Amino acid sequence: MVVLNKIYTKTGDAGETALGNGSRVAKHSLRVESYGTVDELNATVGMARLHATGDIDKQLSMIQNDLFDLGADLCRPDMEKDGESEYPVLRMSEGQIDRLESELDAMTKAVAPLKSFILPGGSALAAHLHLCRTVARRAERLSVELGTVESINPVGVKYLNRLSDWFFQASRIANDNGKDDVLWVPGANR
Fold first, then answer.
1. Does the residue 169 lie in any domain?
2. Is residue 4 included in any domain, yes or no?
3. 89 with 76: CB under 8 angstroms?
4. 24, 52, 72, 158: which one has the fewest Cβ atoms less than 10 Å from its Cβ?
5. Alpha-carbon dihedral of residues 69, 74, 75, 79, nearest 10 degrees?
6. Which ranges in the chain belong to alpha helices (H)?
7. Residue 22: which residues within 8 A CB-CB, separation 6 or more?
8. What's 104's domain CATH number?
9. Quick check: pTM over 0.90?
């Protein structure tokens, strides 16, 4: 359980922050950029939820919780020392990916196959979900880059990859199962 008695600590005033293992790094480090972008993604999901109802809202709520798990995973370096921690280290699991894939399969059955690229837009919910998709892709790129220089849980990268696909299909569901998708017309304004 997290207990926050005071919101400001002043420990980051010199441009450093603490990671989950207690070590301190620059706030502009690639690890902080990675989990910071996951936090930004979570905020965009919160904005999308303002327009969501029913199953989509319930699924987005679960995604928000997963994104906190992912942020906790990314802020904890030294995966090889997980067993030495005095408390269990939170890592993303394949089960979280399995859930996304199951939801993706159901959404894919509900929409017609694509015959054109889709422009972000349509309904308000679809537009917000497209924004979520692009922030998820950025979080994925940063996490992949982080994985080239430091040890990370590869399940987190895989989760972000599925999640961006999830947002894409969910945007189509939000556009009346794809009927209100805004299609790209190549060269339309030449």
1. yes
2. no
3. yes
4. 24
5. 110
6. 30-49, 54-74, 94-110, 124-149, 154-174
7. none
8. 1.20.1200.10
9. yes
